[in-house]
Design brief:
Number of domains: 2
Strand content: 35-45%
Order of helices and strands: HHEHHEEEEEEEEEEEEEEEE
Structural class: mainly beta
Number of helices: 4
Helix content: 10-25%
Strand order of the largest sheet: 10-11-12-13-14-15-16-17
Oligomer: single chain
Shape: globular
Radius of gyration: 28 Å
Length: 327
């Protein structure tokens, strides 16, 4: 007699269907465009990894954005409105579209586009490894200034966020540019480390020393130079063990430059160190006779070209005091 397998087959198919439904529910994507609460991991997953360096211009600012939409309600679950309003004009309706993410040692950087009608802003926000918000900044916008410039954003591997504007001078046919570069500082914000331009003829070739007016009464304070394009200025700090310094160098016929201002702490009578929390750049200073030798220990790529380093020896010179005549 033939056995009837229908009940068993039906039961088996029923369990398969249940498993498929559960699996579908488990992998259902969170609604990032809605109002409902979502998990931080679902928010982070919307940002695909990107490889640095990264570059975008105001003319193609939407080229790298995803089609995924993130609502203000979702974003404000992880970033307070009071902070968002400093980065985005939250008084106007907007949507967000992820551009991508990249991770560093202690931070996670998220790039996204903010769209308000025809206006597009590219913004970066920073979280720590525990998904706590740290800081944010607008980087680029497609808003036209009618100034003839092309505005660009580049992010290198450090990462340094450099915003530049360039145009061709119609008379000289030379490229005019201005560049400002920021890095995230562990103190909780972005700080400027690059501010360069060739648009002011009076400033081209002139190196401004930001600590020149500080006192130089202590033993090691003074001017140490190779030539007028390669020097380090040392000035008095808050006590005998600290010194302010400013370094400028130009190597490889001026194609590789470096510049750094900071505070040096003496570890003994002849050696000092520059080391700042949140800054990967570390420099050792060694004083011997009338010379100072620098040795780059950490990663100082934010402050110099990629093919030159803060490894130099400078000789101290005597600076003649200006005589003030009568009359």
């Amino acid at each position: 007699m033939q056995r009837n397998n229908t009940p068993l087959s039906t039961t088996f198919l029923f369990f398969i269907l249940i498993a498929l439904v559960l699996s579908s529910c488990k992998h259902k994507k969170a609604d990032l465009a809605g109002e409902a609460p979502i998990k931080i991991n679902d928010f982070m997953a919307a940002f695909a990894p990107i490889t640095l360096p990264y570059a975008v211009a105001d003319t193609n600012i939407d080229a790298f954005a995803d089609t995924v939409t993130i609502s203000h309600s979702v974003l404000s679950q992880f970033i307070a409105d009071s902070i968002l309003n400093q980065i985005i004009n939250t008084n106007k309706a907007y949507t967000l579209h992820p551009v991508g993410r990249f991770d560093k040692d202690k931070e996670v950087y998220l790039l996204f586009n903010v769209i308000q009608k025809d206006l597009i802003q590219e913004v970066v926000v920073v979280f720590d490894k525990d998904n706590k918000f740290l800081s944010g900044k607008e980087l680029l916008t497609n808003e036209k200034d009618e100034d003839g410039y092309i505005h660009k954003l580049t992010i290198n591997k450090e990462p340094t966020f450099t915003v530049s504007k360039e145009r061709v001078n119609e008379q000289t046919k030379q490229i005019q540019f201005s560049r400002v570069g920021w890095v995230y500082n562990s103190a909780g914000g972005f700080m400027v480390i690059i501010n360069d331009t060739n648009e002011d003829p009076e400033k081209v070739g002139v190196i401004l020393n930001p600590i020149d007016t500080l006192p130089r009464k202590n033993k090691l304070s003074g001017e140490y130079i190779t030539d007028k394009q390669n020097f380090i200025s040392i000035r008095d700090g808050k006590d005998a063990k600290t010194y302010a310094f400013f370094i400028h160098f130009e190597k490889k016929e001026g194609t590789c430059t470096g510049e750094l201002k900071g505070m040096m702490t003496m570890t003994d009578d002849n050696t000092g160190i520059y080391s700042q929390a949140g800054d990967p750049c570390i420099i050792d200073f060694n004083f011997e006779g009338n010379q100072i030798t620098l040795k780059e220990k950490g990663s100082c790529g934010n402050r110099r070209g990629m093919e030159c380093y803060f490894d130099d020896t400078f000789i101290k010179i005597k600076v003649l005091k200006k005589k003030h005549g009568k009359g």
